[in-house]
Amino acid sequence: MGATILFESEAKSDIHVLDAAWSSPDTFAFVPDKLTISTDWLNAALDSLPNHLARNHFALLTSGSTGRPKLIVAERQRAESMARLLDEVQLGAAATQTIVTLPLTYCYAFVNQWLWARVNNRKLILTAGFSDPDALDREFERAQDAMLCLVGAQVPLLISLMEKARFPGIVRLHFAGGQFPQEHLDSIRDFFPNAMIFNNYGCAEAMPRLSVRLADATIPASNIGRPLPGIEFSTDTDGSLLFRSPFCASAFVEEDELTLTEQSAWIATGDFGRVTDDGSFELQGRRLEVFKRYGEKVSLPQILATVQLSWKGEAALFREKDGGGEDGCVLVLAPHPEDAESRLILRDFRKHHSRAQWPLRIEGSDHIPKLQNGKIDTSGLSVLENKTTYWRQRI
Amino acid sequence: MSNHEQLRQLILDILLLGPEEYSLELCRDQVETWDSLSVVSIAVGLNETFGYHPTPSEATAIHCVNDVISLLEAKGISFGD
């Protein structure tokens, strides 16, 4: 069928190329310049789409459950409806422009920013993100009633590269693509004193948003609020969080297999979750972030949430088996904690978790290793040099 | 560091106690973290710290800190410091 492949650099050079692709009836794929898959694979995946997906759709790449790329195919009309809905649900923070700091090929930036600007007739400001902090600083300074979309991993960069700056022209600030950076909420409010700050939840299959709630220091980051109008959440018997959405993707291709999705179908988010007493939903970890230890469920996000009750630095966990071959995890803090600080963390472990849920060790390091996309390099954590062990279990 | 102090540090570390909670009379039923896994942890910790690994029956017979001292003293490890 020969669907068009549009590379990010083409759109960066001339954003009208992306507009033209969107206006053309033919389905197109919008992908990063550096692909971890071959263009042959991409072409084959696009060629495998049935006729009804070959027009009026678009495709983006995301990480699949195996870590290999997954091609998500979505209908343009549904995505436009989502972009309009996103604008409607953020009352009180009217934005006239949006500043892009993330790759536009991310589903989050693509729908929340590029498409949002297009369908709501707002200004789109492209930047090189934190790879050019001076230019970004100038854009933030110039911003007027602007909306900004960040991921939590960018906050330490913001703090270290734009120390004590204030950007009153940002009126909406979104976080998505990982756990909300609750531990930095005070600093974020200092940087963006006029911004309404939102904790977004979704996934590429949802294209991409499922819930949006105002950030609140008294509500844990794992609480994602209620689903957006028209969207439903449910949980499976094993605690998997499912969604049903009229805006969902139409199909995805993973490991050479095409899967068609229906708007009426319940789709797994890839997270575990539960309904809280007030009807909001709480995440209990990615499927890969939850495991059993001595028969007890261990949720890495919940362990991190406990750490963040007292620890204001960076924290990350990696999986490791204990001496008996039982699954466990190791907590790494950066910078190195004082003795009193690690004691406070241990106090909170005792208060909120059973021994089986405590990490095997607490280690300290100068830094937490990151991947190119800003997410934590968990495989690098285990082999990090110059770590110090501050506490350990004896089993 | 005296043996008393080493034992104190070990117990605080394994049971995640605050310093004010520790005493020689501290018993298993007074601390919620003194669970079955901690019994194993205490045995491993005693071996690491004092070079004696209690047998399973000795480990499960430990009900308070004083029991640990009695056990170790019976093995020739002095707490007269």
What's the arrangement of secondary structure elements?
The complex is a heterodimer of chains A (395) and B (81).
Chain A: E1 4-7, H1 8-13, H2 16-23, E2 28-31, H3 39-47, E3 57-63, E4 69-75, H4 76-88, E5 97-100, H5 107-119, E6 123-126, H6 133-142, E7 146-150, H7 155-161, E8 170-175, H8 185-191, E9 196-202, E10 209-214, E11 223-225, E12 232-235, E13 240-244, E14 251-254, E15 257-260, E16 267-275, E17 281-286, E18 290-293, E19 296-299, H9 300-307, E20 314-321, E21 327-334, H10 339-352, E22 361-364, H11 378-382, E23 388-392
Parallel strand pairs in A: 1-2, 2-3, 5-6, 5-7, 7-8, 8-9, 21-22
Antiparallel strand pairs in A: 3-4, 4-14, 9-10, 11-17, 12-13, 13-16, 14-15, 16-17, 18-19, 20-21, 22-23
Helix pairs in contact in A: 4-5
Chain B: H1 3-15, H2 36-50, H3 56-60, H4 65-74
Helix pairs in contact in B: 1-2
Instruction: Measure the end-to-end span of chain B.
Output: 10 Å
Largest sheet of chain A: 6 strands, mixed
**Main sheet of chain B, how many strands, which sense, barrel?**
none
CATH topology of the largest domain in chain A: Rossmann fold
The percent of residues in helical segments of chain B reads 40-55%
* Estimated radius of gyration of chain A: 21 Å
The biggest chain-chain interface is: A-B, 13 and 14 residues
CATH classification class of the largest domain in chain A: Alpha Beta
CATH superfamily of chain B: ACP-like
Poorly predicted parts of chain B:
none
What is the count of distinct domains of chain B?
A: 1
Derived from helix and strand composition plus strand pairing, the structural class of chain B reads mainly alpha
- Counted beta strands of chain B: 0
The unreliable regions of chain A are none
Strand order of the largest sheet of chain A: 1-2-3-4-14-15
Helix segment count of chain B? Answer: 4
**What is the name of the CATH topology of chain B?**
Non-ribosomal Peptide Synthetase Peptidyl Carrier Protein, Chain A
How do the helices and strands follow one another from N- to C-terminus of chain B? HHHH
